[in-house]
Fold these 3 entries.
Entry 1:
Amino acid sequence: VDIRIRSGGHHYEGYSTGDCVLVIDISRLNGLKLDKKRNILKMEAGAENTEVYDFIGSNGYVFPGGTCPTVGVSGFTLG
Ligand SMILES: Cc1cc2nc3c(=O)[nH]c(=O)nc-3n(C[C@H](O)[C@H](O)[C@H](O)COP(=O)(O)OP(=O)(O)OC[C@H]3O[C@@H](n4cnc5c(N)ncnc54)[C@H](O)[C@@H]3O)c2cc1C
């Protein structure tokens, strides 16, 4: 069985879905951890733009992810 990984599900060509495939949805792997001393944000692969914006914005930082709130950060990064 072919496998598809789905983060935010926004792939333009539909590579995170398909017929007769096993979809592994990682959207609940969405933990975020900020190390303020080292200015490093660790994001789990299923986090969405909006979750990152809310978290990082409330800590005084920005994230350049575009406008769509439900784009996944790992699909965005791979793209
Ligand atoms: C309606 C729409 C609005 C958009 N708006 C914006 C925007 O505002 N800002 C912006 O920057 N971009 C935007 N995009 C483009 C978007 O950034 C890309 O399409 C991006 O690749 C989507 O990532 P995703 O995680 O949501 O999609 P997905 O379909 O979940 O993933 C994209 C690809 O990456 C693979 N993948 C995902 N996670 C992993 C992983 N952890 N390991 C291995 N493979 C993985 C998937 O299998 C798939 O092939 C938009 C696209 C659409 C369709």
Entry 2:
Amino acid sequence: MKQAQVIKPGILQFAEIPDPTSRVLEDHEILLQIHTIGICGGDIHVMHGQHPFVTYPVIQGHEYGASVLAVGKHVTKVKPGDKATARPQLVCGNCPPCRKGRYNVCQNLRVQGFQAPGAAQKHFVVPEDRIIRVDNSLSYDDIAMIEPCAVGAHASSKTDLEGKNVVVTGAGTIGNLVAQFVQARGAKRVLITDVSDFRLRKAQECGIKYIANTAQERFEDAIKRVFGDELFQVGFEVSGAQPCITDLVANIEKGCDIVLVGVFSKPPFVDLAVVDEHEITIKGSMMYKHEDFELAGRLLSKGEINVKPLVTQRFSFDDFAEAYQLIDNNREICMKIIINL
Ligand SMILES: NC(=O)c1ccc[n+]([C@@H]2O[C@H](COP(=O)([O-])OP(=O)(O)OC[C@H]3O[C@@H](n4cnc5c(N)ncnc54)[C@H](O)[C@@H]3O)[C@@H](O)[C@H]2O)c1
Ligand SMILES: [Zn+2]
Ligand SMILES: [Zn+2]
């Protein structure tokens, strides 16, 4: 069986590995057939040698759409023929956060596709506790999007949104999904910002009503245009760009929450005097928990989250490496690239 491996930065190659169909499954194991794999920013960092926490070779594939081929004798959550995906987090279960149920910030966290082998191969075995059974009406593209959707589901669970005005900075795949979950959870008005018209158009195609290109319109003017005197009560930073966190801190209503999702490549400047004086709460949001995956699957099947406009390109498994060439040359117009197996 062929497995795609990033053997060192810039080089993706196929290796021949044993096919797990030839071994007996443990009682709680599930054999999946992988149909689609999504590529995200984290994968691109691995490919460019810019991921601080991996050692090569890296076997990618942490967001995927699969079907169940076979199950161990005690598996009850899925049966052969079901569509599924799985949460890629390997957690220790023993550290203080794990013992408090906060395994998404496990002190010994390893993520498949980064610090542990991912699913970039035809057949892949996962344990039942991380499986997500999904509605069979979902496409394998949609199922591969459950992982990034779960990031949005988790971030949007970090603060109360009912009736609030919300700004999401950054309209990449993750910002877009955060904004969609924020809308689904009952926010009043949601404004998404970016410096790319392409990405803002995608946001509108996904049903996010208010957009602002902050390369062309001042942030202060955009929030005035959208919220009038009401200002905004929640901010989500999903760009990793300094101007965004600066704008959110400077303009959010006093006493309100900012949730950080974007990863900053260098430590950002945050005016803590304003955070203090305005009693702003800044919260981190790291990946997701199992219930976020399940909510993502449910809202996708109900059509409350629209991921179709986000799939911008697709490649066959054999052409996996070409996907990265395209990304290198066309970063702005590449949102979710799907690899079809
Ligand atoms: N916390 C988590 O669990 C988690 C999970 C996945 C991704 N992330 C992070 O979330 C961020 C977004 O991920 P993505 O895949 O959507 O990345 P992306 O690079 O596709 O999106 C970032 C967007 O920010 C926009 N941007 C850049 N400068 C801006 C500015 N000054 N104002 C407004 N927008 C600006 C870019 O044009 C781009 O559309 C990344 O930093 C990623 O590492 C965090
Ligand atoms: Zn991802
Ligand atoms: Zn742990």
Entry 3:
Amino acid sequence: MNQNLPRKFKIAFSGCQEDSGLTPIHDLGARAAIETVDGRQVRGFEILIGGGLGPAPQLAQVLEPFTPADDLLPTVAAIVRVFDRHGNRDNRNLARLKFVVKKLGIDNVRALILREREALRLTMAGRFPPIEVWEERRSAPLQPNRSLPLAGDLRSARWRATNVVPQKQLGWASVNVRLIRGDVTAGQLRAIARIARDFGEGTVRATNQQNLILRWMPLGALSEIYAILVREDRAEPGAERLVDVTSCPGADTCQLGITSSRGLALELGQMIERELGDLADDAGVRIKISGCPNSCGQHHVAGIGLYGGARKFHDEQAPTYQLLLGATLAPGRTRFGKPMARVPARQGPDAVKALLELYRVERKPEETFDVFVDRTGPERLRSVLAPWTELPPSSETPEKYLDWGSDEKFKLETGTGECAA
Ligand code: SF4
């Protein structure tokens, strides 16, 4: 059955309410939760279903606010079976679980799934393995008490503040290796692998934010690790912060791409570092870019999201970006970004800069970007963006009709085929 589902089926887990696994945009999302049942603490999950991005984005809805861990497997099996039975096999564009939820309604889908789970419990009784509580232990030989002081310059201090996350195990930390636009060379990968072997337990994780994570790094060895990363040119601070702009491959390599999302990502990151340095490490707002409406760059879930398109100005095509603002995946107020304005690609950095300058001046203490967007209101935000939405004729500013990273006249041409993200 799993090999013949109507279409792909994406599953995400998050270990806490921070929801770094991005559960609301998956077919099935499981957010860890603990509930007291009969005076006993029971581990389990809040289960969400029917989320997904693409041109018809949909946030997942709650199937059950609490599913005990022992019920996880029958519940997942029931969800997959309902998708297998009700998913659209005639139209590939409508073949995800989100369309089943949209067509039947969450209450009906929930009833189908819960009935299926009951049937599975009876027919598969005893055949679902129990979920065993598993605690990770470090197997690497190093001890956490190696005490080499971290070099005291400002850049390394910034790197430590943004890229190092202490683990729950005292003395150990996760180190986030920031990859600008997700790029890393073979030589850098070898160096990172060596760090994992020499200091950690030999594994490296790729994050859904286009970075790499090295876990079980001894706090006392951070200066050595930082020095190696500096040597390899992979010690950029600001991981998972505003400056850490992410994008899909875009028109550089993707058949469906309209604009060079990678080109804009680089420009935006450099603009923020150069002109909005005090905001660069803001943890409350992220920028994500897609090269077309398909949203492989996850623009719907960013505080500032952009997706590529094209528009004629004075009878000439120019690459553009639609700006969406104020998305949040915070539990209880999860929502996608709201479309605010469409700007020519070359004016994207100016438009984003104008927005962030407003945010810097007018935000209230502790105010998150989505709350700031709501309080400011679309009218005001659109008026701030308005100066960047039009272009003079190309005879006056030919460069503004180009895409980032290109000196050739922009042409709107896409191929057929799968997205390359
Ligand atoms: S199809 Fe996906 S990877 Fe390709 S340009 Fe569109 S969003 Fe980017």
